[in-house]
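Exam review. A common question shows you a sequence with its structure tokens and asks you to describe the fold in words. Practice with the pair below. Do the first one on your own.
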Amino acid sequence: MQRILSLASGGLCGGALFAIMVLTFFDVGGRKFLDSSIPGSLELTELLMVIVIFAGLPLVTARSEHVVFDSLDAYIPSSLRRVQQALVHVVCALAMLGLAWIMWQTGAQIAGYGETTAQLKINKGPFVQAIGVACLFTAFVHAWLVARPTPAGSNDGEEATPGAAT
């Protein structure tokens, strides 16, 4: 699962980030040397940022690379740490499922209204629904993290590096 997620999520994020880089390069170059920017470059950058952020969410979750508040972990017995992690993943999975449903419904409403971006007239609905799909995949990742065995003393399956900041 990790490999498929890395290829799909990482590839989508990397492609969108590369597109932002190319778009910005040509937009700035056009402004500097041709006195003309790319029409709608801000809108395209905003939509590509949506892809970067939400397509990366399942991968960040699977790798446990999100922000973690672990100041109290030293006081929790290791026997309870696995229960705590499972509970957190269950709550996050449920929250992501709820968010996925809301985003899917909102995207359908936006598409129904025909709401588009101001300059390029790109329909916003599919992007909002894509956020919902990304949240659904993130919920599945959280459910997978609950079910998978975690080595004792590790933080969600990731081996802690001595002296590393978390």
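Now try the second one, then compare your answer with the model answer below.
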Amino acid sequence: MVVELGRHIFGVLIFILATQSLQAQDLKITGHTLFNQTTRLDTAKLLSDQPLKSPWGAVGRSAVLPGWGQIYTEHYLKAPLYFSINVFFVYQIYHYEMLWRDEKNEAYRSKRNQFTWYFALSYLLTMVDAYVDAYLYKFDDAMRIAHYMKIEEGVWTSRVEFSIQF
């Protein structure tokens, strides 16, 4: 039963990853993308205090399925890692609960409680990471746009550029 549940959860995760990666690809059609009106970066949005992705939307997604918030913020390597860690802890909780019910050994109960705390912590950290990733979405691009550093013949030249479009 646990193996079947794991297979179903794994299948759902693969489906979500596949659909999100399709949505994340920019399919260029004569200077426009399929999902955005233009391929140019909007520096005013990047440099504003408003996040480009909803942090609470990322938290909600991670609360529903750990790792989904990371997919939303386009951190595709973190998503299966967080999902796997949370599934591992849930499995350990279930495993030690079944052992404790069968044998009534307090060591199993203690292990179950320990893994419950580990799961709660990893679940919370998954949501916090999704929030931070959403809030800092494209932050690196904004810093590349805003600051330029050049090194020539041992001389460092630095400049800050801002562009405003009307």
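Model answer, second protein: Residues 26 and 33 are 6 Å apart (CA to CA). The longest strand covers residues 147-152. Full marks require stating both points clearly.
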